[in-house]
Amino acid sequence: MKYVVLIGDGMADYPLEELNNKTPLQAANKPNMDEVARGGVNGLLETVPHGMEPGSDVANLAIMGYDPEKYYTGRGPLEASSMGVSLDKNDVAFRCNFITNEEGILADFNAGHISTQESTELIHELNNSFGDYGTFYPGVSYRNLFVYSKKESSNLKTTPPHDIVGEPILDHLSMPTDDENAVIINKIMKESQKILLNHEINHKRIKNGKKAANMIWLWGQGKKPQMDSFLKNYGLQGATITGVDLIKGIGVNLGLDNINVPGATGYFDTDYKAKGKYALEALENHDIVFVHVESPDEAGHAGDIKEKIKGIEEIDSKILGPLLDHLPSFDQYKLTLLPDHATPIAVKTHTMDPVPYAVYSPGLDADEVQKYDEFDAKNGILGMGKAHNLINKLINGF
Ligand SMILES: [Zn+2]
Q1: SS3 state of residue 203
Q2: Pair 67, 114 in one domain
Q3: 41, 100, 105, 372 - which has most CB atoms within 10 Å?
Q4: Per-residue pLDDT averaged across 282-308, rounded?
């Protein structure tokens, strides 16, 4: 048996007036997704445990079969794994975003999607200034890493920058403000402004009408998680396909092979076709492949209805279509389609809403559901489930 889990990040949404009260999934032209729903079984899945933040890290960890309440320690350490950065016992890994600070307001959580080349150069600059506190590591675009090795971090609270776009920066610094570690983290974030604003890269960006990467934002901190491998837990050889370090990092922690796909960017311009092709290739020597596509989430954060629909349609025609065409060459297979969480256009951030999921396998008795979307899935035979049980159920039956 071969398994494919196709994850359209943030694909689920709310009905929009602009779409005649349809969701982007309902408005999109997605014959292959509908075929999966029509020929398969459907339901809703809680991907984020109550009381936890609806981050892609928590949700994808759950989808990969690990209860976030037991295994999640933070986003930073997962990203560290993906970058090959190993953490010592006392290290605390933070996600380090480049952001745009406009007169004290967090104007952009990704500094105009700064290029990796530019961000890498800026990261080296930060190491020259803040080396006493830890080490910065360059990642992809605005997504970088800081490993804080000065002190054990206790109950530090930080805020994801994509949740506070348009809000005053000073209202959202690390808490509690009298905590020794929060003081240091806030100091690094504030002082990064001087270094970055004076850097030639930002002079050029401003001159060219681009957003300045004039501050860093440290968040998502945590220590190294302790988890058994996917192979040990489920007896399956697995692989991940994704353009996002965070998802790679979860896979690395679980012992999944990350398949590097040329042209997978984690953004609107990702090479969808290549992802489908590499997924099929990966199935030759793996039992399960998680194919993660970031673009609908980015469109949700940007509040861009057109891009969101386009992302869904690209996944449908360029990834899911070819998968459905070629999967029958394997003896038996099960394909699961789902988002990790909703990123509704109206709120521009992730929500806790259960997500629609569809499982398709030749010979499986289909339920009544005809279309793949947030509302039709409610009528599916699978009812409401929890994401961290999904892999078990795919293997052992629903
Ligand atoms: Zn996500």
Answers
A1: helix
A2: no
A3: 372
A4: 97
- Where does a domain end: 192, 222, 252? 222
Ligand 1 center from residue 296 Cα (angstroms): 9
Integer Cα distance of 398 and 381 in angstroms: 10
The last residue of a domain, from among 168, 192, 222? 222
Provide DSSP, 97-135. EEEEEETTEEEETTTTT--HHHHHHHHHHHHHHHTTTEE
Contact call for residues 40 and 373 (beta carbons, < 8 A):
no
CA of 248 to the centre of ligand 1 (A): 13
Question: What's the rounded Cα separation, in Å, for the pair 328 and 101?
Answer: 51
Q: Same domain, yes or no, for 207 and 292?
A: no
Ligand 1 centroid to Cα of residue 207, in Å, is 33
Please tell me the total count of domains within the chain.
2
How far away, in angstroms, is 294 Cα from ligand 1 center? 7
Query: 71 C-alpha vs ligand 1 centroid, how far in Å?
Result: 18
153 has a pLDDT exceeding 60: no
pLDDT of residue 271: 86
Q: In this structure, is residue 125 part of a structural domain?
A: yes
CB-proximal residues (5 Å) to ion ligand 1: 9-10, 56, 297, 340
Ligand 1 midpoint to CA 349 (Å): 10
Q: How far is the CA of 191 from the centre of ligand 1 (A)?
A: 30
User: Quick one: what percent of the chain has pLDDT higher than 70?
Assistant: 98
Interior/surface letters 264-291, b for 16+ CB within 10 angstroms, e for the rest? bbbbbebbbbbbbbbbbebbeebbbbbb
Q: Are residues 286 and 377 in the same domain?
A: yes
Do 108 and 218 share a structural domain? yes
**CA of residue 331 relative to chain centroid, distance:** 31
10 Å CB burial of residue 81 (0-12, 13-18, 19+) is: buried
* Gap from CA of 275 to ligand 1 centroid (Å): 17
Q: Is 291 helix (H, G, I), strand (E, B) or coil?
A: strand
Q: What is the pLDDT of residues 163-219, one digit of tens each?
A: 899 999 999 999 998 888 999 999 999 999 999 999 999 999 999 999 999 999 999
Query: How many angstroms separate the alpha carbon of residue 198 from the centre of ligand 1?
Result: 34
Instruction: Identify the domain containing residue 351 by its residue range.
Output: 2-72+227-396
